[in-house]
Amino acid sequence: MKILLIEDDDETANYVARSLRREGHSVERARNGEEGHTLASTYAHDVAIVDRMLPSIDGLSLVKRLRGEQWKVPVLFLTTMSGIRDRVEGLVAGGDDYLVKPFAIPELIARVDALVRRASRSGSDVKTKLHIGDLELDLVDRSASRSGRALDLQAQEFRVLEYLARHAGQVVTRTMLLENVWQLHFDPRTNIVESHMSRIRSKVDKPFSKQMIHTVRGAGYLLRAA
After folding, report:
1. Tell me: the pLDDT tens digits for 55-99?
2. If you ran DSSP here, which 8-state letter would residue 140 be given?
3. pTM of the model
4. Which of the 8 DSSP states describes residue 181?
5. 108-116 long-range contacts, Cβ below 8 Å, gap at least 24?
6. Rounded to whole angstroms, how far apart are CA atoms 48 and 30?
7. How far is C-alpha 77 from the geometric centre of its chain's CA atoms?
8. Strand intervals (E) in 35-148
9. Cα(213)–Cα(169) distance, integer angstroms
10. Interacting residues of 101 by C-beta distance below 8 A, sequence separation 6+
11. pLDDT value of residue 127
C-alpha cells in the first residue's frame, strides 16, 4: 500500500512512518501543506494521513483544495482537536476518518486498512493492483506475479518494484529510489540500490524470455511491458 503522510512534526512522522513500513507499506512524507499538495497531485497513493495543523496550507484547506481538483484518495485526519465541531469540520472538508492525538498505532493501522477496503468496495479510483504487461502487483497482499507465476520478492524488493511500476515507462533515478523507497535524502555510498535491482531482475526477468527492467546508462532504470 502506498501511503501519503502529511505531518510537520518530525517525531510523530517518524513514529508513524516506521510503524507503517513494518507492516509492509510504502510511506511518502510531506512536511507542510504545499509539499503535500505537490506530492498528492503528482504521484498515486492509496490513502493519505493528514495533520490538521500544517504550515503553509492547513490540513482542512489542503483537503478541500484537493477535493476540488477531483482527488479521490481516502483521507484520515490526525489532530489534537477533539471536539465534535472539529470532527465535523474535518469530514465536511473531505476527510473520510478522524483520529485524535495521542493515538495507538494499531488503531491507526486498522483505520487506514479500513479506508482502503471501503474505497475498493465503493469502486473509487484507489487501485489495489498494478498491471504492466504480464506483470501484476497486488498492493494489498504485497505479492507479485508474471505470466501467472508467483515472484518470491522480499518486502523491500516489492517496494522497489512497486515504485518502478507506478512510474512505468519513465526513467527512475538512483536518487529517486533512495528517497522514496529507503527514505534516504543523502547518498549512503553503498550499492544498496544496485544489489536490490540485481535480485529483482533475477526474479522478474531471468526466468522469462523478454526483459522488462532496463538500465538507462547514466540515468537510471526503466520498467516497461515486455
Report:
1. 999 999 999 999 998 888 999 999 888 777 888 888 888 998 989
2. T
3. 0.57
4. T
5. 108/16, 108/19, 108/49, 108/76, 109/19, 109/20, 109/23, 111/76, 112/1, 112/3, 112/20, 112/47, 112/49, 112/76, 115/47, 115/74, 115/76, 116/1, 116/46, 116/47, 116/74, 116/140
6. 11
7. 17
8. 47-51, 75-79, 97-100, 129-132, 135-138, 143-146
9. 10
10. 12, 78, 79, 80
11. 62
User: Taking the mean position of all CA atoms in its chain, how far away is CA 221?
Assistant: 19
CA gap 23, 32 in Å, rounded: 25
Report the chain's mean pLDDT, rounded to a whole number: 89
97 close to 48: Cβ distance less than 8 angstroms: no
Q: In terms of CATH architecture, what is 2-121?
A: 3-Layer(aba) Sandwich (3.40)
Q: Which amino acid is at 46?
A: D
Q: Where are the domains of the chain?
A: 2-121, 129-223
The SS3 assignment for 58 reads coil
Whether residue 74 is preceded by a cis peptide bond, meaning omega within 30 degrees of 0, is no
CATH number of 129-223: 1.10.10.10
